[in-house]
Amino acid sequence: MRSVPPVARAYVLLTAGVAVLCAVPAFSAATSWPGVALLAFLYAGCEQLGRCRLVGRRAPKGMGTFFPVLLAGAFLLPPAAAALVALPGALLTSVERRPAWLRKVWRAAQLALASWAAARVFGALGGPDAVADPRFPYALLPGGAAVLAFCVALTVLDGGVLATAERVPVRSAWRGLFLRMLAPVAAHGLAGLVMATMWTSSYGPLAALLVLLPMYISCWVFAQYQREWSAHQATIRALVQAVDIKDGYTRGHSERVGQASMLIARELGMAGERVEALRFAGILHDVGKLGVPTRLLRKDGPLTPEEREVIQLHPEYGHEMVRGIAFLGEARSAILHHHERLDGSGYPYGLAGAQIPEFARVVAVADAFDAMTSTRTYSRARPVAVALAELERCAGSQFDPLMVGALVRVLERDGWHPVVTADEAVVPPPRPESVAVPPAASL
């Protein structure tokens, strides 16, 4: 319990107390206990399905709470009874961080209060009558209002935890929470409303259960996608960190090139998948430096022609390193060809014009732009306007004019605001002026 601040523990216990007060009336009213028990069992089963031996090994972690059953309870039951549906599932859910009991109590109280609020709003707007009669479209309005109430309750409570347990500043603890959860909760709410309508129809609860299967499968698929995407991001971060550790001279450079490449792609109207692939290309364009001897990357004297030839092998090294990473797609061609020049004087293969892949032409411009606008040991940062003028001067010979024009337009319109998460406090060893690269190029 020492990991949770006292004020956060007090906040959780207060929330739990309020949830108990909201649920108590269910025990003194004519509550349909079979319905409460069935919904609670269904919710607990959905939450525990990932631990099943048959499914659990393939079910991705972090799937999140399965809200359709909770919202169906809010649409079918009185508020006090709806608050009870979440309790068994929330209390049985496994928790990795300690104290487990406090976190389980918090989750149960939070979901109970959100369900109670949704049921109150749904009932106040005549939702139960619209669900009971064959008038499903008329239940959409109270159902939508109930979903909003559910989201508001979760937002308020989550923000309070961030402020008390995570010490997030109060002015920003609630920022963005509501909008992030609105779309998924709305989709779950529609499924819950269909489930409630079928439950009260002549088909009965059994037919209502059929709604859960496609909804659960869609949530499972989305969670699987999220897990794979997180693995992709982790792969990219590991490669970039390895390059930064080996060559601190380029620290932060990769992320800025990725950002500039993404700006160019968006300005050119590329599809979202290609924009993201170009960001990967920019971030990983120098990954081949892992194959270059460290003594050359950190050499304190002039590079010999032979040493420069070794360093210029890094595009080929990088391409070999990422050849088997399927999700990079077109990004791999950019890693191999980002030092080619439009006039054919680049490396490693001396490609010219349209022979150079489109992604490589984008990354070449982004790479040169960051090289000119970043302070390095052998050169001071140039103003953005000066760097853009240099790119325009070299357009047609070194760079693709289309890519240069796109970067110029977007930066003149929106400015350059690089966001770099790498630690740029590490100062690399100085390099002599004699090894400075040309103004519009970088190794």
Describe this structure in words.
This protein is mainly alpha-helical and about 450 residues long. The protein folds into 2 domains: about 5-210, no CATH class; about 230-435, Orthogonal Bundle (Hypothetical protein af1432), CATH 1.10.3210.10. It is about 60% helix and about 0% strand. It has 21 helices and no strands. The chain has helices at about 5-25, 35-50, 65-75, 80, 85-90, 100-125, 125-130, 140-165, 170-175, 175-200, 205-210, 210-245, 255-265, 270-285, 295, 305-310, 315-320, 330-335, 360-375, 385-395, 400-415. Helix 2 runs parallel beside helix 5, helix 13 packs antiparallel against helix 14 (about 270-285) and helix 13 crosses helix 21 (about 400-415). The longest helix is centred in the middle third of the chain and has 35 residues, at about 210-245. The radius of gyration is 29 Å and the shape is elongated.
**In DSSP terms, counting alpha (H) and pi (I) runs of 4 or more, how many helices?**
21
Output the radius of gyration.
29 Å
Assembly category: single chain
Task: Report the β-strand fraction as a percent range.
Answer: under 5%
Q: What gross morphology would you assign? A: elongated
- Note poorly predicted spans: 53-63, 422-443
How many discrete domains? Answer: 2
Q: Please give the CATH class of the largest domain.
A: Mainly Alpha
| Level-2 CATH architecture of the largest domain | Orthogonal Bundle
Helix-strand pattern: HHHHHHHHHHHHHHHHHHHHH
- Describe the sheet with the most strands: none
Compute the number of strand runs. 0
The first-to-last residue Cα distance is: 52 Å
- CATH homologous superfamily identity of the largest domain: Hypothetical protein af1432
- The residue fraction in helices comes out at 55-70%
> What number is the mean pLDDT?
81
